[in-house]
Amino acid sequence: MDLSVTTREEGGRTIVVVGGEIDVYSAPTLRDRLNGLVADGHHDLILDMQGVEFLDSTGLGVLVGGLKRVRTHNGSLQLVCSQERVLKVFRITGLTKVFTIHDSVQDALSSEAGSDVPV
Hints:
Elements: E1 4-10, E2 13-22, H1 27-39, E3 44-55, H2 57-71, E4 76-80, H3 84-93, E5 101-102, H4 105-110
Parallel strand pairs: 2-3, 3-4, 4-5
Antiparallel strand pairs: 1-2
Helix pairs in contact: 1-2
């Protein structure tokens, strides 16, 4: 399945809705989109991954890189994911200690921007 990436503004933050597979083939598209958003001044991002069906190590690298990039601007990158198969990847790699992961976009919006866990 192809990767889809759309964005919208809500509550002073940018919500990036991702669907499909984030793998070695599609990860560069997501990386370019995140880099472009940060370059355009969007530093508080919520990545809605509810539609993500697969995530590999290349995709994880893109997410970590995105987190580091927003943090250079005192921003945040929070994730929305409740799918067990994707959450398992974060648990196995220990990245649940790096990312703030919410069950819904509303939960992420109601949390304080910039409340990510330190890297």
